[in-house]
Amino acid sequence: MSRRAATSLRKLTARPIAGPSTRCFSSTTLIPEEPAHPSVHTDKVPGPKGHAASQGINKIQDSRTHVVVADYNKSSGNYLVDADGNVLLDVFAQISSIALGYNVPELLEVARSDEFVHAVMNRPALGSFPPVQWEEWLNTGLMKTAPKGLDNLMTTLCGSSANENAFKAAFMAYRARERGQTDFTKEELDSCMVNAKPGSPDLTVLSFKSGFHGRLFGSLSATRSKAIHKVDIPAFDWPVAPFPELKYPLEEHVKENEAEEKRCLEEYEQILVQSKTTRPVAAVIIEPVLSEGGDKHASPAYFRSLRQIAKKHGAYFIVDEVQTGVGATGKFWAHEHWGLQAGEEPDFVTFSKKMQASGVFHKAETRPSAPYRIYGTWMGDPVRALQARKIIELIEKHGLVQHTQAQGTSLASALTSMFRSQSMVENLRGINEGTFLSWDFSTASLRDSFLGHMRKNGVQMGGCGERSVRLRPMLTFGEKHQEILLDAVQSSLKGL
Amino acid sequence: MSRRAATSLRKLTARPIAGPSTRCFSSTTLIPEEPAHPSVHTDKVPGPKGHAASQGINKIQDSRTHVVVADYNKSSGNYLVDADGNVLLDVFAQISSIALGYNVPELLEVARSDEFVHAVMNRPALGSFPPVQWEEWLNTGLMKTAPKGLDNLMTTLCGSSANENAFKAAFMAYRARERGQTDFTKEELDSCMVNAKPGSPDLTVLSFKSGFHGRLFGSLSATRSKAIHKVDIPAFDWPVAPFPELKYPLEEHVKENEAEEKRCLEEYEQILVQSKTTRPVAAVIIEPVLSEGGDKHASPAYFRSLRQIAKKHGAYFIVDEVQTGVGATGKFWAHEHWGLQAGEEPDFVTFSKKMQASGVFHKAETRPSAPYRIYGTWMGDPVRALQARKIIELIEKHGLVQHTQAQGTSLASALTSMFRSQSMVENLRGINEGTFLSWDFSTASLRDSFLGHMRKNGVQMGGCGERSVRLRPMLTFGEKHQEILLDAVQSSLKGL
């Protein structure tokens, strides 16, 4: 990492978390016109206009997954306005992909700048014709967030392709290590053209039960969240390792959870060892919190062991921070919670969502051996890099990672108290991980009913896994939003 | 297709090609400040500033694929300005991805509009929270170009993911047809979670030798252009069929070419038949011109047969128009050249590049059976849909498809004359396909040397295949650009 990037990262991540920091930042600093509270005036959300809009879209695109059709012009900060004019506190944030809020004036100003306007309408093929400002845009933006030890960046257009580019780089680096100084053989070059060995090798990516890494053919082969995402789609015969099923509250299940993590680590190592003689594991991919699969957590010690065991058996280690990255867990990158030592850092860290730009941080040693091996027309998008730059600047300026950590602490504490007397709710988790909180209901239908009540009570929240709900508020979520959220949770639980 | 879309498509495609139409449109109509000619003032292109910029970027990203670092603020219309201030006539257009030109004032105006500014900074999860304007934006934009019979649209972020979404939809539709009315079995749902049969079926996508369909794991398995794109990357064991190697000029090799196409069709059908009992082909994917693989063409009759044979054997037919789409071949979609009858239309048409938006046009019958089967966070990008809408409007308003067809005719004629006395150049092709022209040199190094001379002579042109060059000018390429291009080709050939 360049010295400049390293210094900036420390600024983003190493500030002491002051007790009263929740009081230092208010979302109205960034979004002066944010509404004071939700307001719902239709009997159900979505209302009639929302339904009509969905029906219109459904002539062209599947609308069965619509939650609400939104009026983004009227939305502001933490509040999403729907087609019927309902104002909802949004703690799902476009599946965890809005960092600061809707219509943040300083972001709109960036979009109106000449720099941005020229960048959006003159989209370059970045690999061959990059803009003269590209180095500067990266160094003053995305590179400021480069995880320790990872000073190279492949930009992409989405999280799935970030993961797949990490897979490709890992496969190439793995084969390069095996191959040594020699070049590709003619047999390799010929056989890969018919998708056969040795040119198309039988290498694998190991992923974890309940993990989600995307929906393209490589990333979907590593995804293990829900059958409906995978059924009928051909998949690579790649291995899956168990992920710990921890019991909550953690402090009451210390020994069981340790045993569960140990069991999972042993089985994971066994797969790595056994596959060596059949289809070696070139890379291991893991999310710091298995989000789409149900917000599954494990201890920092477990993740450190995962990383060490991967290294021991020669597998590259990919941390998928697409959902966990950019501050919501109270660290800029969630894997900073793990306490990895120098030399133990991940080989690849992938990102997307709240960063708006997508890509892979990696080490110079995993650059492909020859040009054009990882390449494409666009290879990222300069306007998303410019947007990311401003988001990063505002996060840093307003101390929003620390703010979110403090918000998470008080929110977790309030929810813990509230849920003490609630038999319907269990497994509150994510404590000490910012606002990245979740809990379970006993059934999926109860969960879905709760989410409907929340919407009617003015809060847009999301589900995950089979029967979980997840909080994914923006980084500008503050005390006043917390009060509204807690009231809505209480009312919605009563309404069930 | 909606009536409105059908009517608009006719406007885009069915205007008679008037003889003098090359004189009707001048690029200065759209781009008043376009330079009059190239100007190169460094000894080589790129010059010292370009090299320095590449070295700077290389600290972060691989710069070995850089051609020139560009100054997009200064570029205009058909002219790309590089870091050293050289002004190059750009007939490669960011690997065929710029439709109208750099800094087209009417496009910059769209980028400055409130509608656009709000859309770019409030990026929705389109599958769940689409904007209220989404139906309108699609109907007044992308849907106006929907190929006949394909009235559904999946939006994506790039061409590779467009192709992979088409694959997924084809696999699902294929299995749904086999399955009939029954739901997924428990065995299917369980087995797909470990990437095993029957849930992860042994179905395949058939592609063609020299085809290029992207670089993610599914699309790369169908890509057959160059070994360096594929080596070391695990691939699905999918079949490849031969693509005709036509001889030029076509009129001198009628019988041989017919025999070659017949041979290829027979082998293709044989693969479809033989695979039925092993790993059935669920989909066939083909580019109308195999571009990256060396600009390989075949006759409309060949493509009609491909489509008919796919249908006969139950395989879905995907036309990859990522590079060929949006007017450059003298039709809005290149597959319009084939003369397919009603009922013979493709099942899927994928697009990206010049459209700036990416996606898949398809039929309602290939919508997945259940929600969330084809889904993701962003599922396209509203700002690229808005950009596409304006591009489509300007193409229509200025008759740029017809203009490009006429330009292609005169350019092909001039090149044919010029090459008559040239022994270094062979296989001029793409005649009657707009400006989508290409030719071969005897060796790759001669080709590369030619491209260097062209740059020094003020023209940025691209290569493809082993020893080909391809013209991929914008749709605003006109008579004055043609003169400059022809002069540069002549000088560069002399310089070899």
From TrEMBL, chains A, B:
A GO cellular component entry from the record: mitochondrion
Cofactor requirement: pyridoxal 5'-phosphate
Name this polypeptide is given: 4-aminobutyrate aminotransferase
NCBIfam families the UniProt entry points to: GABAtrns_euk (TIGR00699)
Positions of region (Disordered): 33-55
SUPFAM superfamilies: PLP-dependent transferases
CDD domains per record: OAT_like (cd00610)
Natural source organism: Papiliotrema laurentii (Cryptococcus laurentii)
Family: Belongs to the class-III pyridoxal-phosphate-dependent aminotransferase family.
